């Protein structure tokens, strides 16, 4: 019980910090809104996007990708709290406390995944403006999937945060990693006609499977790249791997 109590306390601490920072909540909505309503409308009208389904609105096509971008950035950057805690000495206090590294890592991953999922839910409220009408059955499938993607992205951020010593270094390295992940995931364009080298990189991109699954649920007129079972299995596997590596990374902080 002590292990799970420590996990809950770490999760609760991060959640309180998040909901008390109103500017962070509002600021996290800026990029998705710009991508959907400015880039989506601008590129859609310029490219006259039809995709695999003729007449498909470009905003509709990119909406699942923007949802994936939201949980990617929110999940990864929630791990910056580890760098912050290290600078102020709180991380060392957690590591020398009589709790396991597993409890600490799980608490951090769960809090980041919860925050990213919450921001994803906010973006889902914009779905009608992108031409997507969500049904209860869609939400039943989307919400757990979104949490799995958030979990894996947060785990990845934590793995890097345990190795980087400064806020500036973390932000630079993660931006360098996240932008290729976002664009290679198929969030902004279809990968079916992409060159072979890009297709290969997309297949090893963890975000690809989350975006593909969310698009398969929300945009039924467009054939998915992989089966929903493949996407979910990949998401669960990546989540388990990232949690395992995060636990090992915390063990090296002592």
How would you characterize this protein structure?
The structure is a single chain. The chain has 254 residues and is mainly α. The protein has twelve helices and no strands. The mean pLDDT is 83.
SSE map:
Blueprint: H1 2-20, H2 22-27, H3 30-47, H4 58-78, H5 80-87, H6 90-96, H7 101-124, H8 136-161, H9 167-184, H10 196-203, H11 206-218, H12 228-251
Helix pairs in contact: 1-7, 3-4, 4-7, 4-8, 4-9, 4-11, 7-8, 7-12, 8-11, 8-12, 11-12
Helix count from the secondary structure assignment:
12
* Percentage of residues in strands: under 5%
Task: Tell me the structural class.
Answer: mainly alpha
Order of helices and strands: HHHHHHHHHHHH
Supply Rg. Answer: 18 Å
Outline:
With 254 residues, the chain is mainly alpha-helical. It has twelve helices and no strands.
Identify the notable features of this structure and list them briefly:
globular, 12 helices, about 250 residues, mainly alpha
């Amino acid at each position: 019980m002590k292990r799970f109590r420590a996990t809950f306390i770490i999760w609760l601490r991060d959640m309180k910090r998040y909901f008390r920072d109103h500017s962070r909540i509002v600021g996290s909505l800026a990029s998705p809104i710009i991508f959907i309503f400015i880039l989506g409308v601008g590129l859609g009208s310029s490219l006259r996007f039809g995709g695999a389904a003729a007449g498909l609105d470009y905003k509709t096509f990119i909406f699942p990708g923007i949802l994936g971008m939201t949980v990617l950035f929110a999940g990864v950057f929630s791990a910056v709290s580890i760098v912050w805690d290290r600078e102020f000495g709180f991380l060392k206090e957690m590591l020398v406390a009589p709790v396991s590294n597993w409890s600490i890592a799980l608490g951090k991953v769960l809090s980041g995944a919860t925050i990213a999922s919450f921001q994803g839910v906010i973006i889902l409220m914009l779905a009608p403006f992108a031409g997507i009408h969500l049904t209860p059955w869609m939400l039943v499938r989307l919400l757990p999937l979104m949490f799995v993607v958030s979990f894996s992205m947060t785990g990845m951020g934590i793995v890097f945060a345990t190795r980087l010593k400064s806020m500036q270094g973390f932000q630079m390295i993660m931006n360098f990693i996240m932008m290729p992940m976002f664009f290679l995931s198929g969030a902004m364009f279809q990968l079916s006609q992409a060159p072979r080298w890009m297709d290969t990189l997309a297949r090893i991109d963890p975000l690809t499977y989350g975006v593909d699954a969310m698009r398969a649920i929300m945009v039924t007129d467009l054939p998915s790249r992989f089966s929903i079972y493949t996407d979910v299995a990949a998401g669960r596997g990546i989540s388990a791997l990232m949690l395992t590596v995060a636990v090992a990374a915390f063990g090296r902080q002592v």
